[in-house]
Design goal:
Elements lengths: L9 E6 L3 E5 L2 E4 L5 H12 L3 E6 L11 E4 L3 H11 L4 E4 L6 E3 L20 E3 L3 H6 L7 E8 L3 H12 L3 E6 L11 E7 L4 E8 H16 L1
Parallel strand pairs: 1-4, 1-6, 4-5, 6-9, 9-10
Antiparallel strand pairs: 2-3, 7-8, 10-11, 11-12
Helix pairs in contact: 1-5
The structure holds cytidine-5'-monophosphate.
């Protein structure tokens, strides 16, 4: 058994993007390096927690010591998350595609020379954070992320209420902040009755703060 304030606690973390196929060689996705998710997993592991790390196809290294589940699509991520429950806490860091292509092709789509363009039809993906927050097997603490470009706090508070999670870690991702794809984060922790603006920190430091807060809350 490992030591630390999270010893014996199971923490489920989603990370990375999901890929939604258009055909066997093409997909749509959100931009996500997986860096914040991997940093979070490492921070929870460092405090002695057991981590199930459900990740889409991300560039970031996989956290060593976690149980890693690799998925591609949002629906696969949703299934992997359900299969990993119960958990003491869940942190939804993944940039899940909101829509999948309903008429994805089994064969590579070809230009037919006539100039006819493919018509993609979309279907909505399950909202994994909302489903788990409102489900029977709800972990004691559920944390979501919010990337916002304006009205960051108000949008995060509304998102917290709408999804039914406990905390939202909100980030201002306006391009001039350099946060998207960068090494740093400026997070705002929104809880039921509080708003904490954290200074600009590395993604590792942000992860350690979240893990420390989680340990306090679970103790
Ligand atoms: O609704 P929005 O995508 O802005 O919410 C972001 C939060 O919800 C993140 O924590 C993300 O991981 C989670 N999410 C999810 N499943 C979705 C969409 C978002 O778990 N289909």
């Amino acid at each position: 058994l490992r030591n630390g304030p999270l010893a014996g606690k199971h923490v489920l973390i989603t990370s990375g993007p999901t890929h939604e196929p258009i055909d066997p060689v093409r997909y749509i996705a959100n931009r996500s390096s997986g860096a914040q998710g991997t940093a979070l997993a490492e921070a929870v592991l460092a405090l002695g927690g057991n981590v199930t790390f459900v990740t889409g196809p991300a560039a970031a290294a996989r956290p060593s010591g976690a149980r890693v589940v690799e998925v591609e699509t949002a629906r696969q991520m949703a299934d992997a998350v359900q299969a990993a429950l119960p958990a003491d806490a869940a942190i939804f860091c993944a940039a899940v595609a909101d829509w999948r292509v309903e008429n994805a092709s089994d064969l590579k789509m070809k230009k037919d020379g006539s100039g006819t363009l493919p018509a993609l039809q979309f279907a909505e993906n399950p909202d994994i954070l909302a489903t788990v927050s409102q489900g029977d097997n709800r972990p004691g603490i559920v944390i979501g992320f919010a990337a916002e470009t304006h009205d960051v706090i108000a949008n995060a508070q509304a998102k917290r209420a709408r999804k039914g999670c406990d905390w939202i870690v909100a980030n201002d991702v306006r391009p001039e902040t350099g946060i998207m794809g960068g090494d740093e984060n400026a997070a705002i922790l929104v809880t039921a009755d509080d708003v904490e603006e954290w200074p600009r920190l590395s993604k590792d430091q942000t992860a350690r703060r979240i893990a420390a807060r989680l340990a306090e809350e679970l103790s």
